[in-house]
Amino acid sequence: MKTYTSVGMNGIQWTARNQLDDSDFADDLAHLSHTHEQMQIKAVSVAAVSASMGLNIQKPKTKVLKYNTENSSLITLDGETLEDVESFTYLESTIDVQGGSDADVKMRIDKARATFLQLKNIWNSKQLSTNIKVNLQYQRQ
């Protein structure tokens, strides 16, 4: 997918010499841009390159998260408006409009709490030794 970003500097400044245009993993792609116009161009370019390879963008699954902007303009693709969201999960990390890690840390703590509570009956059991309980905990990881 580097074809669509090879023209111009449309990413975010990552280091003094490098721009980060996107983050891709398997069939997921996260675009990064400083402006609405750059993001719109990326969306259209990716759709065009994908279509030329026989691939389609799943518009209902495609989300837009705007960080630190007053721009309320919508991103469109083939005449359809892409959904604006306050947060989404990418590679099992929560990303939100606040830009920090608070939402992700909270989500991970909640998952750990839920997993721990699933073992409540085991932890409270008087029939199992502490060693067995600890071994069961490590096997669940």
Q: Total helix count?
A: 4
Shape: elongated
Q: Beta-sheet strand percentage?
A: 15-25%
Helix-strand sequence: EEEEHEEEEEEHHH
Q: Helices, strands, pairings?
A:
Layout: E1 12-13, E2 19-20, E3 22-25, E4 28-31, H1 36-52, E5 63-64, E6 76-77, E7 80-81, E8 83-84, E9 87-90, E10 93-96, H2 102-118, H3 120-124, H4 130-139
Parallel strand pairs: 5-8
Antiparallel strand pairs: 1-2, 3-4, 6-7, 9-10
Description:
The chain has helices at 36-52, 102-118, 120-124, 130-139, and strands spanning 12-13, 19-20, 22-25, 28-31, 63-64, 76-77, 80-81, 83-84, 87-90, 93-96. It is an alpha+beta fold and 141 residues long. It has 2 domains: 2-98, no CATH class; 101-141, no CATH class. A two-stranded antiparallel sheet has the order 1-2. A two-stranded antiparallel ribbon has the order 3-4. A two-stranded parallel sheet has the order 5-8. A hairpin with a 5-residue loop joins strand 1 and strand 2 (19-20). The radius of gyration is 21 Å and the shape is elongated. The model has no long low-confidence stretch (mean pLDDT 80).
Task: Summarize this structure as a short list of keywords or feature phrases.
single chain, 141 residues, two-stranded antiparallel sheet, 10 strands
What is the gist of this entry?
By secondary structure, the chain is α+β, with helices and mostly antiparallel strands.
